[in-house]
Amino acid sequence: MGLSDVLARWATSRPHTLLVASPGTTATRLAVERWCRGRGAVLAASPNDADVLAVTEPADGVLASAVEELWRQMPDPRAQVRLAAGDDVECRLDQAVAELMTWRPETPPTREDEWVAGRADDEADGHDMSNMAGMDHDAHGAHDMGGTEMPGGLQMADRADDRDGLTLDAVPVALGPVLSCWPTGLVVDVVLQGDLVQQATVRPFDVSVVEDDTWPHHPAAARLDRAADLLALLGWAAVADEARDVRDLLLTSPDDESIGPRTDRVGRRVRRSHVVRSALTGLAVMAGSDARARLISWLSDDDFPIAPAASLEDIVALMVGRDLADARLVMASLPPDLSTLAPRRSMSGGHGA
Amino acid sequence: MAGFVAVSAMLATALALVATAHLVHRAVSGVSCPVVAGPFESGLRPTVHAASRYHARWYTVTLLFLAFDVEMLFMYPWAVVVRSAGVGSIVEMFLFLGVLMAGVVYAWREGAFRWA
Description:
The complex is a heterodimer of chains A (353) and B (116).
Chain A: H1 2-11, E1 16-20, H2 26-39, E2 42-43, E3 52-56, H3 62-73, E4 79-83, H4 89-101, H5 114-125, H6 140-143, E5 159-161, E6 167-169, E7 171-175, E8 188-193, E9 196-202, H7 219-233, H8 237-252, H9 259-272, H10 274-280, H11 291-298, H12 312-317, H13 324-333
Parallel strand pairs in A: 1-2, 1-3, 3-4
Antiparallel strand pairs in A: 5-6, 7-8, 8-9
Helix pairs in contact in A: 7-8, 7-13, 8-9
Chain B: H1 2-28, H2 56-85, H3 87-109
Helix pairs in contact in B: 2-3
């Protein structure tokens, strides 16, 4: 019907894309971001908001089950794209959007309860249930209200003492493999009381890291990428997008004359900003530098920006006692080098040794 | 009787609008019953239900706000008559505020405002 086609074309003019970029697949990730910017597409932060799921190979370890779960959580119409290293990213993504345009609802509907389907899949594969900190099967009596079943079969969180001598619910949350402005594949299990992090532990890293040759050859662009992530997490999308634009310009035409002035402008705006000052001063202090100092050094012309060597345990220890937003800012301001964590397998480009 | 006609007309209009909205949704939506999916926890499945209490620091700040909200209730009529009532009323109101401030300082020293 003509109206359906018109509506479908209008609806897919700005596809929301959820990007799962395996650690090290920088070139593919940048290509997807470039496609999004050229198309007017939006990078989604969660699967509820997403139409297209773009996954760069290899997404293994915890990322494999995470991608399946994200796929289940995406509402119809949806499309999935697996991008290998040499793929034509624009072509594949355009095909995915074309798939979206021709989607029609199935009768009878095949997707009804994805939560239950996910649990059945977990049990079929024999996976371990993820970290159960805070859940106590024997304490059902305290929470059971006349035998009512909590939605999803999940019990409420158990209680623990907090700093004021009260007992407050201790909710275990996974800051998990796929989160915006978070190193993909890294899982940090935090226990929250209210919104404050009481404990934080890193899960063993089991995602294979592809050998990256983009960032080591373009350190200035790498710094801008990190700064853009931190600024996006602070909510300053305009400056973050400008930083990403300059980063792309550095990678495609490094001799462009506008790079210097634009970087200076970004650095000036960040230095003068009150929000950045109040949010980042005194946060994530490591080797004498706080998050604000590091951000400013990333945006300056320094060839040797402040980059303290910090192990994951140190980074995660800085999160304790902070609220959830600060915890994510800590991770963004001390980006870990994931290639040092998973020396087991590193694939370079295509197949083969 | 005319009042009842007006009220029932209003009720009928409201019900008709709501029914129209529901019917339009039924006609336009792609699927009749939406998929039940779990909440997003970065790609992993949540292990506990997310409903939990706020941290205690919000409650202490709320109580303090309540005290000053009631104080403002006293200040509204005072503000209207203070001009005609004279200097005495200003002194009395500030004594009242002083008493409240003593309470705030006590709460402060007891750590009610301690943030994270």
